[in-house]
Amino acid sequence: MEKAIYGMAMPFNDFYAESDLENNTYSVERTNREGVFFDSKVGITLRHDYTQVIGTTEDGLQVQTAEGGVFFKLIPNSPFGQSIYKKVKRAALRHCSISFRKILSEQNAAEEMVCSEIFRSEGYTDEVSVHDLKEIIVHEICLTNGPANELTFCTTNMEDSRLNGLRWDNIQPIPKALIRPSERPRFDREQWLAKETEALSKDIAEFKRDVQKFKGLGGRK
């Protein structure tokens, strides 16, 4: 039996909310299927850590949109991927998250009024803004237990009822009609930046150790 991780990284017709306690504001972003596209390369990481890449659409990952949300299938092709597979199988990892660029969003005044009324009825005075995401470009998915949306999930059970109606055979890693290519895939750039940051942190730590060693010697020449 094929070992694979399946999941939903973003539910549609739902919302993502963020509060700003300093400015007493509450912003809501609504998602929909028609507005979701993908970069020419999408990667999957552990907890949005680009130094812990589990796979990409060039190596074992498939993504697609369906009525319920953004779904994926990953066939782990490395020891790290196999260890992640085991964690998902025993439910040590249960949720997902997603990274994307906002290309176009539109303010939804009607929903703002509804949300504001709900807030006022609960005694909150926050200013509420609601935007519909009309076009986003997804470049990364992650497995996590701290998701932005609790409706996300991951599983190793291909018979999971939440995957009903999905097929993965004979389809491209990314549906061609949904690709919005960039000059350089955002995932590659983020991965490069993470590796450079990690290398710099190691250099700084080594420098500090050398300084402490020098001080331990009394600074003698």
- The helix-strand sequence is EEEEEEEHEHEEH
What is the overall silhouette?
A: globular
Mean pLDDT score = 91
Structural class: alpha+beta
Please bin the fraction of helical residues: 10-25%
Contiguous helical run count: 3
Portion in strands: 35-45%
Query: How many domains would you count in the coordinates?
Result: 1
Number of strands: 10
The main pleated sheet reads as: 6 strands, mixed
Distance between the termini: 66 Å
Contiguous uncertain segments of 5+ residues: none
Radius of gyration equals 21 Å
Written account of the structure:
There is one protein chain. With 221 residues, the protein is an alpha+beta fold. The chain has one domain. Helix content is 25%, strand content 38%.
